[in-house]
Design brief:
single chain; about 375 residues; mainly alpha; 2 domains; 13 helices; about 0% strand; metallopeptidase activity
C-alpha cells in the first residue's frame, strides 16, 4: 500500500523535525527564562502566566468536539508555540536589530509581527506538508493555530511579567504594582491576542486543504499569514504609536474583531455538522454505514445521550465501544466529505477501508437508545 507507506514516512518526518526543534527551542528558551530574573520572580511569573492557559485550551477543545484532533498533535502545537516559535522569533528580531539598526518601537510594531506570525505559522505549514490528512478544513486550522498561539503567549507572558517586576521593561521601577498591571493587560484583558492573530494563518491553511485549485492552495496560507501579521502589527503599533489610545483601539478594533472570530469559529463548527450529515448520508446510501446511526453521531447532544446509554447498559466496555464506533463514523464522514468535494488525500482508499472495517467490527457491540441491547 504505497499511500500507507507514504503516510508513515510523512508522520516520521514530521515527528522527528518537530521533536528536534522543540528540544532545541526548549533549551534556548529555558536559558532565556533562567537569565530573566531570580527564581522566585520566575516562579511567580510562570504561575500568573498559567492563569489564562486552561480556559483558552478548554475553548479550543470545545470547538474541536466533532472530530477531536490527536492529543499528541495538539500538545506539539503548544510546545512549538512556547519553545520553537518564541526562540526563533527572538533570534530573528535580534538579527534585525543588529544588522538593520531598527529601534525598539519599530521592532515591536513591524519586525515582531512579521517574525512571530511566521514562526507560529510554520507549524501549520508543516502540518499541511506532512500531516495534511489530519486537516479537514478551516476549523482544524483554527484549533491548531489556537494551540500554537496559546503556547507562544504563555512563554512570552512569563518574560513580560518577569521584566515588569524587575523593572527591566522600561516602564518604571518595577515591583508588585507593575507586575499586577502587566498581568491585568496581558493575562486578563488580552489573553486571546496571539491565538487570534495566528487564527488567520489557520484559516488560510484550512482553505488550502479544502481547495482543488493549486493557486488557492499556495495563496491562501500566504494571505492568512499576511492578515495575521497585519492584525498583530495594528495591535502592537497601538501600544507605541497610539498616543495613549491603546484602550480605544482595544474597544473599537480588537475586541469586536475577536468577537467576530469567535462567531466565525462557532459558525464553522455548525457547518461541520451539516457537512457530516450530508457526507454520512451519502455513505449510508452506498451501504458503508447504517443510516439510522447518523443522528446519534452528528448531533452532540444525541452523542452524549448514546454514550450515557452505553455506559448504563454495558459499563466501561460498552462506553469504549460506543466511543470507538462514533469516532470511526466521524472520521469516515470527514474523509468521505473530502472525496465528495474532490480533494481526497492520497491514501484515501486505505484510510476509508480502515474506517469501514472498524465500523463493521464494533457495530454489533453497540446499541442506541430505543434499540435492542446486544448480548455480551
Amino acid at each position: 500500500m504505497p499511500g500507507l507507506r507514504q503516510r508513515r514516512r510523512d508522520t516520521l518526518a514530521f515527528t522527528v523535525v518537530v521533536s528536534v526543534l522543540v528540544v532545541l527551542g526548549g533549551a534556548g528558551m529555558l536559558l532565556v527564562l533562567a537569565l530573566s530574573g531570580a527564581p522566585r520572580t520566575m516562579v511567580t511569573a510562570t504561575v500568573l502566566a498559567t492563569v489564562p492557559v486552561v480556559p483558552l485550551v478548554g475553548c479550543y477543545l470545545w470547538l474541536d468536539r466533532y472530530e477531536p484532533e490527536p492529543r499528541r498533535l495538539l500538545a506539539a502545537g503548544l510546545l512549538w508555540g512556547g519553545f520553537v516559535a518564541t526562540a526563533v522569533a527572538i533570534v530573528l528580531q535580534g538579527i534585525g536589530g543588529l544588522f538593520v539598526g531598527i529601534d525598539d518601537d519599530t521592532s515591536l510594531a513591524l519586525v515582531a509581527p512579521l517574525t512571530e506570525e511566521a514562526t507560529k505559522g510554520a507549524f501549520l505549514i508543516l502540518l499541511l506538508w506532512w500531516r495534511r490528512a489530519e486537516l479537514d478544513g478551516v476549523l482544524d486550522g483554527l484549533v491548531y493555530a489556537g494551540m500554537v498561539g496559546i503556547g507562544f503567549a504563555f512563554v512570552e507572558n512569563i518574560l513580560y511579567l518577569a521584566a515588569a517586576y524587575n523593572g527591566t521593561d522600561g516602564n518604571g521601577p518595577g515591583g508588585t504594582s507593575a507586575l499586577t498591571a502587566t498581568f491585568v493587560v496581558r493575562c486578563l484583558f488580552s489573553p486571546f491576542a496571539h491565538p487570534f492573530f495566528t487564527s488567520f494563518t489557520g484559516i488560510g491553511v484550512g482553505i488550502a486543504v479544502a481547495s482543488r485549485r493549486p493557486l488557492v492552495r499556495f495563496v491562501a496560507p500566504l494571505l492568512g499569514y499576511l492578515c495575521a501579521a497585519t492584525a498583530h502589527g495594528i495591535w502592537n503599533g497601538s501600544t507605541v504609536y497610539g498616543g495613549g489610545n491603546f484602550v480605544l483601539v482595544y474597544l473599537v478594533l480588537m475586541a469586536p474583531a475577536f468577537l467576530g472570530a469567535v462567531g466565525f469559529a462557532v459558525w464553522a463548527r455548525r457547518s461541520e455538522r451539516k457537512m457530516l450529515a450530508a457526507a454520512l448520508g451519502d455513505a449510508a446510501r452506498r451501504g458503508l454505514i447504517p443510516g439510522t446511526d447518523i443522528g446519534w453521531v452528528v448531533d452532540l447532544g444525541a452523542r452524549r445521550q448514546s454514550r450515557s446509554f452505553a455506559k448504563r447498559t454495558g459499563g466501561d466496555q460498552g462506553l469504549r465501544a460506543m466511543r470507538d464506533y462514533q469516532q470511526a463514523v466521524i472520521e469516515l464522514g470527514f474523509l468521505h466529505s473530502r472525496y465528495l468535494r474532490g480533494t481526497p488525500p492520497p491514501d484515501f482508499a486505505e484510510r476509508g477501508q480502515e474506517y469501514v472495517a472498524r465500523i463493521a467490527e464494533v457495530r454489533p457491540s453497540v446499541s442506541f437508545p430505543g434499540q435492542v441491547v446486544p448480548a455480551r
